[in-house]
Structure formats: structure tokens, C-alpha cells
């Protein structure tokens, strides 16, 4: 793995719980894993490093302790009004770049939401392709409660696409807390796990993904993300057709067909 080691990081830990699976843990439990400039910088660095590592097949993102991420650290936020407009824009773009880097990781990202995901932490959870939550998971767009807009760090673009514009408006305008059961019903969580098996369930899903063709999974993610941003059905078909044509020229499809004929598990290489 090419990612920075946990010894080099101050706000994250990076481990490998299974072959091809990387676990990134927000590691400020005493502050409910609240975000700082350092965390944004480290998230971007780790995300880009993982994205460049061909051995990484799935990334799991979670929080240490009892929270996923409580949003921007209010101790840091106290200094925001003193920044110039351009200084604030630079700070905001630094945070946005970090979260965009997480979403841009070319392999599936599973958010294992173990507690509160508030404000920027809510936005961070939306960067994942799949969200699993413990019964303690809860979400809120806390921005309106501190004089800011819920249009922050991609939330206004991703949330309506995930749960629909009316439900997104409810959450954005009220700033209310969405508990795990409701989050699952809305589609914000793919599933609610048991109280003590969140990471086990996330790892089980990661292993299921790792059993498939690396190229097929990567191009599936690319198609799903790209087709969220185009308006034409014809353009979506064109993108899908190009992906399928490319994958038939790779080694994994012939291997899958041979494995099916020979009644054995396929040995995917991603080449």
C-alpha cells in the first residue's frame, strides 16, 4: 500500500484489515472526530494516495470512538469571521478539495457511520458510494444552526440525488437530526447493522466487492458517477458501451468465462 502510515498522520489512522481493503479512521475521538485544516489536508493526501495504489480494491471510512464526524471543529471555527473574504474562500476550497478527493477514489468507498455525522461530517458521509450505520448513527445538516448554508461541501448536490429534493429540503432547512432507522428508510443508509458489528458488516461487504473483477468494479463506479452528471440517456448508453468494450479487451472477462465453465472461483488480476 502506498498510503501514508498512521505514524505520519495526526488526525487519521490507515490500516489494512483484509487483502485489498483499507480502513481509514478519523482519529480525534476526544473532539468527536471534528474536522480541522490538518484533517482536510490529510484526507486529501490519503485519498489521492489510495486512488493511485492498484492494490487497493475497497476503502472503508469510519470514526474513532462514539462519533463518525461532528463537522468542523468549533475551536477552529471561532477564527473564521476574522478571515478576509479571499482567505475564507481559500479555507472553504481546501475543505471541498479534501472531500472531493474522497469521492474521486476510483474504487468503492464504504462509510461505516458509527455515530453522529453532522455538518461537514454529514457531507463527508455523502462522498461514500455506500453507507452502513450502527443504531447510533445519526445525521444532521447543522449548518443552518450556526448561521451558514446547507449548501456546503457538496451536500446540496449529492443529498437531493440520494433521497430526493423534498426530503433533502426538510433536512437542510430544519437542521433536525435524522436517526439511523429513518436514515435507512430514506435511503441515506444502505443498511443499519447490529450495535457491535458495523465494521464486520462493512468488511463483509468489502470482501464481496473484492471477489469481483477490479476493472469491472472501477468502471461501474465511473459509470454511476458520470451518469449522475449528464442529462442524456443516449450519452449514458455511449459511456456504458465504451466501458464494456474496453473490459472485453482485459484479462478478467475471459478468466470469468473459463472459471464458469470449469466450475471454479475466478482468479481476477485487474489486467
TrEMBL record:
InterPro entries hit by this protein: ClpP/crotonase-like_dom_sf, Enoyl-CoA_hyd/isom_CS, Enoyl-CoA_hydra/iso, Enoyl-CoA_hydra_C
GO molecular function terms attached to this record: enoyl-CoA hydratase activity
One GO term (biological process): fatty acid beta-oxidation
Residues forming coiled coils: none
Protein name as it appears in the record: Enoyl-CoA hydratase
Reactions performed catalytically: a 4-saturated-(3S)-3-hydroxyacyl-CoA = a (3E)-enoyl-CoA + H2O; a (3S)-3-hydroxyacyl-CoA = a (2E)-enoyl-CoA + H2O
PROSITE patterns according to UniProt: ENOYL_COA_HYDRATASE
Keyword set, alphabetical order: Fatty acid metabolism, Lipid metabolism, Lyase
Organism for this UniProt entry: Mycobacterium palustre
Family per similarity comment: Belongs to the enoyl-CoA hydratase/isomerase family.
Protein purpose: Could possibly oxidize fatty acids using specific components.
Pfam family name, one: ECH_1
